[in-house]
Amino acid sequence: MASTAPAARRAQALWALPPVAALALVFLYPLALVVWQSFSPEDGGHSTAPYAAVLAQASFRDALANTVLIAVGATAGALVLGCVLALVIAFVPFPGGRALGRFIDVFLAFPSFLITLALLFLYGTVGVANGVWVQAAGAASGPFDFLHTPWGVLLAEVTYFTPFVMRPLLAAFAQVETGQLEAASSLGARPWRIVRQVILPEALPSLAAGGALVLVMCLNEFGIVLFTGAKDVVTLPVLVYTKAILDGDYTGACVVAVVNIALSVALYALYRCVAARTAAGGVRRARA
User: Helices 58-91 & 250-287, crossing angle to 10 degrees?
Assistant: First the structure.
């Protein structure tokens, strides 16, 4: 028996070697190159001088502020809108509710620029809304001119990322026992109280998971900012593109990329910590 255990461990290590090697080649090696390049000044050698130079730039600080503010705002909007829509689909019977729930799964496969193009078609300078206004009021131009501003980017991200919140919420709401809802209703609880005290506590881990996913994706979103044409809205991914492609500053681009990665990983770690505490609190409440 003692001799078979080391042999089994060696066999498991051999089976694990190919996927680990593939992961290292496809993901870890390029990431290591980016980190290595971020410590490589143009005059040779390796130091933290590129970080000091990039962090001192006002463009970097503005991009960091834009990234965080837009990501937080879009996440908050997606959480509120996604929670309301998921509650309606899950608990308010109406024709087409099931089809709409299935459409959410299809929507997750859509590229982000498709939603942005749809918003440009609706609210762009020559979009449908401005065209209707011009024809109805006889004005020279329409009043809708916000898609090239941070508000336009925020609207596009909320629109695109809301289904990413709804999908785990719909799965969580499907697990809520109808007997609990009927018992609460029979005791005189109003709908909002049932939602607040019965439904949402059960769905809190799913809500946190959806919010964390949306926050990380918003931090790294590039296509929406690019397709809205918001030239004054520079986020960290846009700054990486600008430095690498337009300015030819590959070291600076790598520095910004490393900061963006570190920010995403830190927020994901925070989410894992909060999710673990939420799950532990749910277990304690269930035992009580």
Answer: 40
CA dist 217 and 266 (Å) reads 13
Could you tell me the two tokens for 208?
């946190």
The per-residue pLDDT for range 14-48, each reduced to its tens digit, is 777 777 778 777 778 888 888 898 888 877 777 88
Structure tokens at 145: 């001119």
Determine the residue type at 32: A
Rounded distance, CA 25 to CA 31, Å? 10
- Per the CB < 8 A criterion, the answer to whether 48 and 196 are in contact is no
The string of pLDDT tens digits covering residues 237-287 is: 999 999 988 888 899 999 999 999 999 888 878 777 766 766 665 555 555
Tokens coding 258: 């490393």
Please name the residues in contact with 158: beta carbons below 8 A apart, sequence gap of 6 or more: 74, 77, 78, 81
pLDDT at 1 over 50: no
Of 100, 145, 153, nearest to 122 by C-alpha is: 145
What mean pLDDT is reported for the chain? 81
Four-residue CA torsion sign, 172, 177, 182, 184: negative
Helix H or strand E encompassing 285: helix 250-287
Categorize the per-residue pLDDT at 236 as very low, low, confident or very high, splitting at 50, 70 and 90. very high
In tens, the pLDDT along 174-227 reads: 887 777 676 777 766 677 777 777 788 878 888 888 888 899 899 988 888 888
Question: Comparing C-alpha atoms, which of 219, 265, 255 is closest to residue 34?
Answer: 255
- Tokens encoding 192: 């909002």
Residue 246 host element (H or E): none
Token pair listed for 146:
């916000």
67 CB-side CA count, 13 A: 26
